[in-house]
Amino acid sequence: YFSTAGNSSYNSLQTKWTHRASRGLDILLGYTIAKALTDAGDALSNAGAGGYRAAGFVPIKYDTGLASFNIENQFVASGSYALPFGHGKGFLNNMNGIGEAILGGWSINGILTFDSGQPQNIWSNISTGSGLGANAVTVPGVNKYKKTLASYFNPAAFANPPVVTSVGETSLAPLGGAPDQVNGPGYKDFDFSVFKGFQVKEAMHAEFRAEAFNLTNTPSFGLPGNLNYQGNNPNFGQITSTISTARVLQFAFKYYW
Fold first, then answer.
1. What is the pTM of this model?
2. Bridge partners (DSSP) listed for residue 191
3. Which residue of 44, 160, 226, 246 has the smallest Cβ count within 10 Å?
4. Which DSSP helix (H) or strand (E) runs through 97?
5. Quick one: pLDDT at residue 22?
6. CA nearest 46: which of 70, 76, 71, 68?
7. What is the DSSP string of 121-161?
8. Angstrom distances, CA of residue 106 to CA of 20, 253, 255
């Protein structure tokens, strides 16, 4: 667990599209598809990912699975736009005084994030042998997800592996299936801000900011709990936590000189 004996890999395709500042508009889009695999769990916390089932009997490579931090898909869009009103802009560019103070110097900014869910391991609900851990076996052809808060995973999609039947048994079947059979809910967030600039003197200006984090107050949920799938448990994979904060509003005033 604590020696540098593990192997990890990370492979990804990373894309980016940029619209550089033009007429007050600046946009950056990024998308990454990736896979992180490892047979070395985090020594402190492996989140929902699988751990070692029989490190004293078989090599840890048999427990190679998705890393706890694996995010298969991530999309981020960010941008800013200086509204075209006021002195030196495309519209109402002859304004001065009160008109400029009210309508000029506005800009908006936003960051939109979508992440797919982190991996989660479903352990066997029975002990298959002394000193062994075991993963649940997935049932072919059965959808692993229900995606409700009460039951995010489908209990009918998982079964117990066979138990050890003799001393010295060479079959690895009692260790169960591959680790990290499912992924938890994804993450989504939209942050938004409005800036208003005021020109005081040639070398001095002020700025008012109104900023909202998680503007839509949309919850992103944590990994499901209650991983007992036996008897088609209706609360298997129940979600009881969030990983996002509720909407936060903040205001600021800055003076530049």
1. 0.84
2. 111
3. 44
4. helix 97-103
5. 81
6. 68
7. --B-SS--STT---BPEEPTTS--B---SS-SB-GGGEEPP
8. 19, 14, 16
